[in-house]
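We examine the record.
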Amino acid sequence: MLKRAISLGVRIALGTDAGVYPHGENAAEFGYMAADGMPADIVAVPGNPLQDIKVTQSVFFVMKDGVLCRNERAEPNQAR
């Protein structure tokens, strides 16, 4: 189903509440999804959005299609 969703352009996010398997094992899903053709985009925020949703307004790192687009915590000579 994941391959079909990717081919149709469905936006997919990976997250968990780890309700169906033990905590600490969910990271393996990244590999499974990548093996099925899922590209990886990453954003980072300064805190836990589950505790304070407003941290999503302060994204400081973005990687899109494997390309660093924004990194406000990088050394001055690195890409931003």
